[in-house]
Amino acid sequence: MSDVAITRSDTDSKARYAARVEGIAEEGELTISKVTPTLIIADHTYVPDSMRGLGVARQLADRLIADARAAGQRIVPLCPYVRARAMKHRDDWADVIQW
C-alpha cells in the first residue's frame, strides 16, 4: 500500500476528500453532501486508473468514517463503494452508518 495524503475541503453543503500519491499527477476523491450538522451523505468515490490497487478508495472511506465519528455524524452510504464497505464492516461501522 502506498503512502496516501488525504485532504478535506468544505463548503456549507458539501465536502470533498482528495487523495494524492507521490509521483501520480491525478487524485482520487470522495464527495459528501451535508444534510444536517449530524447527517451526511456519501455521494461518490473515484480513484483514477493510475491509483488502482494502492488502497486509495479504502483509505478515503476510512477517513470519512473517522471524521464522522469524531464529529458525531451519521452517514447515508449512497455511494456504491462506501455502501459496499459499510456492509462488509456492518458491526464496526454501526455507530456511524444510517441505513
TrEMBL record:
Alphabetical list of SUPFAM superfamilies matching this protein: Acyl-CoA N-acyltransferases (Nat)
EC assignment: 2.3.1.-
Enzyme's top EC category: transferase
Residue intervals of the N-acetyltransferase domain: 9-98
GO MF term list: acyltransferase activity
InterPro entries assigned to the protein according to its UniProt record, in alphabetical order: Acyl_CoA_acyltransferase, Gcn5-rel_NAT, GNAT_YJDJ
Keyword Nucleotide-binding: no
Keywords per UniProt: Acyltransferase, Transferase
Protein name per Swiss-Prot or TrEMBL: GNAT family N-acetyltransferase
Organism ancestry: Bacteria, Pseudomonadati, Pseudomonadota, Alphaproteobacteria, Rhodobacterales
